[in-house]
């Protein structure tokens, strides 16, 4: 039985789900291409949304696009479709990151489909979490989720957590002495009543930290935000480190897919989630982020997991802005 082409409505629905993924500073550095009558949906990098200061090798861009790719796979499975994905299918096209073949002739992945309700619920939470550990059984579920996408998730011990928190404090001090480091943050921060389809709006800043040690980036910086409350954050943040054995663009895409699988599964298990990549934006700090005793080769993200308020929804670009149908 031959694969059937997909109508515009179906393609738009898949892309809508894909673009709910997280990305650095909510820059949403992706585009999608579909040819009428085809069963292929292509994911491309939007290099105009790259961050040469913060992300000079586009590693974080690939992570965000990988997360969007995973959402697309989840939405396809929820719609009864099977997906076959090829990463970096054309070495001559640096913007083409993945080609996804969508078919209704094979059984869809039920484990992916079960994650679909979490796509709309996943938002980065910049709020305090309870000083309550994540159960070992949930940790193991999340580890297995990362492994299914070709990555590893490590829950660090006490000394490693202390080191990761120290790295964040270190880079905060460095950045305060280098105003150029704030350029990308300023570019993607949305203030006041500014209408936005991307970036981090003030409504998603979360409270100002008045105490505690959670590694939460303050997008307000030293600027006062009217009506913004202050709060004490947890003293024992529960962190996880996501990484891969190698450090190539296809590994970054796999890591992005693993990251989103972990986040969606965490949501379904009652956890709030946030991401901290601040220290990883400095190459020397990134090298120090891994536990030298582990098999983890390269760290791509530090996750903060816990029990607390869900994050605030951030804006998304209209589908017509990111989807090209030929």
Which features would summarize this protein structure in a list?
five-stranded mixed sheet, four-stranded antiparallel sheet, 13 strands, 33% helix
Describe this structure in words.
The protein has 326 residues and is an alpha/beta fold. The protein is built from 10 helices and 13 strands. A 5-stranded mixed beta sheet has the order 3-4-2-1-13. A hairpin with an 8-residue loop joins strand 3 and strand 4 (96-103). Helix 1 packs across helix 2 (59-78). The radius of gyration is 19 Å and the shape is globular. The mean pLDDT is 93.
Strand ordering within the main sheet: 3-4-2-1-13
Evaluate the radius of gyration: 19 Å
Span between termini = 25 Å
Secondary structure category:
alpha/beta
Mean pLDDT: 93
Q: What are the low-pLDDT stretches, counting only 5+ consecutive residues below 50?
A: none
Question: In percent, how helical is the residue content?
Answer: 25-40%
Task: Give the total of beta strands.
Answer: 13
Biggest sheet layout? 5 strands, mixed
Q: What's the helix-strand series?
A: HEEHEEHHHEHHEEEEEHEHEHE
Global shape: globular
Strand percentage: 15-25%
Count the helices. How many? 10
Helices and strands, with pairings:
Layout: H1 8-18, E1 30-34, E2 40-45, H2 59-78, E3 82-87, E4 96-103, H3 110-113, H4 116-119, H5 136-148, E5 152-154, H6 158-176, H7 183-187, E6 189-190, E7 200-201, E8 208-211, E9 230-232, E10 238-244, H8 249-268, E11 272-276, H9 283-288, E12 298-306, H10 319-322, E13 323-325
Parallel strand pairs: 1-13, 6-7, 8-9
Antiparallel strand pairs: 1-2, 2-4, 3-4, 5-10, 10-12, 11-12
């Amino acid at each position: 039985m031959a694969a059937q082409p997909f109508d515009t409505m179906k393609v738009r629905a898949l892309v809508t789900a894909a673009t709910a993924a997280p990305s650095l500073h909510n820059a949403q550095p992706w585009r999608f291409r579909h040819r009428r009558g085809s069963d292929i949906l292509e994911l491309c990098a939007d290099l105009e949304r790259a961050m040469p200061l913060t992300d000079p090798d586009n590693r974080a861009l690939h992570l965000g696009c990988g997360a969007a790719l995973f959402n697309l796979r989840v939405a396809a499975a929820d719609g009864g479709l099977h997906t076959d994905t090829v990463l970096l299918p054309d070495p001559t096209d640096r913007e083409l990151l993945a080609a996804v073949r969508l078919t209704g002739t094979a059984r869809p992945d039920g484990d992916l489909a079960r994650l679909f309700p979490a796509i709309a619920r996943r938002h980065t939470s910049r709020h305090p979490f309870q000083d309550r550990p994540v159960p070992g059984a949930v940790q193991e579920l999340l580890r297995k989720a990362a492994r299914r996408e070709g990555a590893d998730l490590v829950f660090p011990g006490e000394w490693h957590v202390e080191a990761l928190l120290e790295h964040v404090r270190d880079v905060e001090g460095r950045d305060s002495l280098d105003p150029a480091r704030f350029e990308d943050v300023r570019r993607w921060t949305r203030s006041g009543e500014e209408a936005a389809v991307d970036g981090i709006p003030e409504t998603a800043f979360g409270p100002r930290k008045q105490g505690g040690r959670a590694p939460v980036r303050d997008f307000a910086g030293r600027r006062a935000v009217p009506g913004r409350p202050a709060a004490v954050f947890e003293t024992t943040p529960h962190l996880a480190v996501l990484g891969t054995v190698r450090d190539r663009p296809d590994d970054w895409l796999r890591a992005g897919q693993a990251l989103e699988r972990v986040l969606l599964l965490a949501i379904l298990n009652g956890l709030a989630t946030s991401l901290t990549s601040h220290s990883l934006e400095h190459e020397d700090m990134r090298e120090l982020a891994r536990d030298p005793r582990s098999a983890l080769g390269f760290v791509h993200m530090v996750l903060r997991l816990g029990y607390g308020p869900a994050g605030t929804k951030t804006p998304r670009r209209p589908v017509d802005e990111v989807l090209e149908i030929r």
